[in-house]
Amino acid sequence: MFFDIFLSFFSFLILVIFVLVGVAFFTLLERKILGYIQNRKGPNSVSFLGFLQPFSDAIKLFSSENIFPLKSNFIPYYFSPVFNLFLSLIIWMVIPYFSNIYIYSLGLMFFLCCASLNVYSIMIAGWSSNSNYSMLGGLRSVAQTISYEVSLFLILLSFIILSGSYFLIDFYYFQFFCWYIFLFFPLCLCLFSSLLADTNRTPFDFAEGESELVSGFNVEYSSGGFILIFLSEYSMILFMSLFSCIVFLGCDVFSFMFYIKMIFVSFLFVWVRGTLPRFRYDKLMYLAWKCYLPLSLNYLIFFIGFKLLIISMFL
């Protein structure tokens, strides 16, 4: 039993290390893509083609002075970035590896619970800083994330009803011959844009609206606290890219092409950031409650009827 516990802990430690290294190189990829979109080079001075630029940025951030606001609520202010990073790393345990270390039949339920908890760390970070700007960014983030999580959960519930399980490996079996993106293309587009809104990415980045909120809920964070929030955001982007591939692009995690698809979805996240302007806030809420919610509800009712029809045919 102790060997199993040690093996599980060691495998999770390796997973965390590789996720953080992947986050480092994803930031480099993002800066390169945005550079070429904006007709400039991007980072290219540090080592060969700027490969060591993320690590030099991390050293610069960790070596800068850590400032604590005098009137902040220190304990929630200090621990909310840690909790945010913890949630964004522990959510990686739902990946359906066939080694049976962390795999379990309620993986999608665990994902939905962690995605719901993620908003609390942002809200507490904005409130505990005791700053009007960070409080406004936290309120925007709470309203936006709760709005888009409703449609995200309903879309995932449609796929859960279709596959009949919360087990992510069942997505591998059901998409062995045909991917879901070919069968339900509009629903997959809604899922992708809901994931964009759930990770606070452009054009839905109202929690970090730099032009009007001075960086939003993390305005009072510096050095270690800022880099923990940064790492949690980008690890969630990588996980959402992986999750998109699992749900509607096939789920063969031992195939090399699976990770090519994951890099392509991550590239879509960056491409959207480089091309689309930020939404107006009322348009954002209009899109969530008057477009995505009715569409996802209609699809859910359709899937329930489709499943009942199949069951009645076989009975």
Using the alpha-carbon principal axes, give the shape.
globular
Sketch the major β-sheet.
none
Low-confidence stretches: none
Estimate nothing, just give the exact number of structural domains.
1
Mean pLDDT: 84
Protein name: NADH-ubiquinone oxidoreductase chain 1
GO cellular component, one term: mitochondrial inner membrane
Membrane topology: Multi-pass membrane protein
Enzyme class: translocase
Question: How does the SSE layout of this entry go?
Answer:
Elements: H1 2-37, H2 53-63, H3 74-90, H4 107-128, H5 132-163, H6 169-174, H7 180-183, H8 185-198, H9 210-213, H10 223-248, H11 256-275, H12 281-314
Helix pairs in contact: 1-10, 1-11, 2-10, 3-4, 3-10, 4-5, 5-8, 5-12, 8-10, 10-11
Structure description:
The chain has 315 residues and is mainly α. It has one domain. 72% of the residues lie in helices and 0% in strands. It has helices spanning 2-37, 53-63, 74-90, 107-128, 132-163, 169-174, 180-183, 185-198, 210-213, 223-248, 256-275, 281-314. Helix 3 runs antiparallel to helix 4 and helix 10 (223-248) packs across helix 11. The longest helix has 36 residues, at 2-37. The model has no long low-confidence stretch (mean pLDDT 84).
